[in-house]
Design a protein that fits this description.
The structure is a single chain. The chain is an alpha+beta fold. The protein has two domains: 97 residues; 82 residues, DNA polymerase, domain 1. Helix content is 40%, strand content 12%. It has a four-stranded antiparallel sheet with strand order 1-2-3-4, with helices on one face. A hairpin with a 2-residue loop joins strand 2 and strand 3. The longest helix has 24 residues.
């Protein structure tokens, strides 16, 4: 459930207890952005901490947007700027303008997943998620969620197969890593596509099919135990 908390904590909304910074991009600056709104997880459940971080982020944005406007070639008086000043806006980098998807690491996603989803679950739930993430690090290295690509996902699948996992086990591991990514994408409102969705793998690979033993091949020995015949 998402709750807007603009009055109590400016520029934020709350989802599942966590606060997120949210601010619409001014109409005259939309050409600089891929999306009309900036959303970033503040990584806190504290209203006071969220308020402080949100106000700082908003102030930085205001300053940055001011410089972007000054860089407008149609700005009256722009030709009167001192040498080098006009390039300030182009060279300025603002942390808050960088989406959360560029900063949330795999370990952070795993921690969030097992902490929030693992409550009341058996130990095997956490173990499965940790194992899936460990395999991903072994196969593709440690990255932020945004840095994992479809090519990484395919390499991950091939890595699991090369380890000798049968099709059903590969499916369970991929389901676990997919769930970790999906949960983080939802929790942190990330603008990401899960690279582990829709991958093909042979679920029956390495799985032996158990056939019934023909009756004629079953040696039958009858013994009497406690007055009852037992077939071995």
């Amino acid at each position: 459930m998402t709750r807007l908390l603009t009055k109590k904590v400016p520029y934020t909304f709350n989802r599942a207890g966590y606060y997120y910074f949210s601010r619409r991009v001014p109409a005259d600056l939309l050409s600089y952005y891929s999306y009309p709104r900036i959303v970033q997880g503040l990584k806190t459940r504290s209203a006071q901490t969220a308020k402080s971080r949100a106000l700082v982020a908003a102030a930085k944005l205001d300053e940055y947007w001011s410089h972007l406007r000054m860089a407008d070639p149609d700005l009256i008086g722009r030709s009167l700027f001192k040498p080098g000043y006009g390039s300030f806006a182009r060279n300025t980098q603002l942390d808050v303008s960088i989406g959360s998807e560029q900063t949330i690491t795999l370990s952070e996603a795993l921690k969030t997943y097992v902490t929030q989803k693992g409550a009341g679950k058996p130990k095997t739930f956490k173990a499965a998620a940790q194992r899936a993430c460990s395999y991903l690090v072994d196969a593709c290295g440690t990255k932020t969620l945004a840095e994992y690509t479809r090519a990484d996902a395919l390499s991950y699948r091939d890595y699991l197969i090369a380890r000798g996992l049968v099709g059903s086990s590969v499916g369970r591991v991929i389901s676990s890593i997919r769930a970790v990514f999906n949960f983080a994408i939802s929790e942190y409102a990330l603008d990401l596509k899960n690279p582990f969705v829709g991958m093909y793998f042979d679920k029956s690979a390495g799985v032996s099919k158990r056939l019934p033993i023909p009756i004629d091949d079953i040696p039958t020995t009858i013994s009497v135990q406690q007055g009852r015949p037992t077939v071995f």
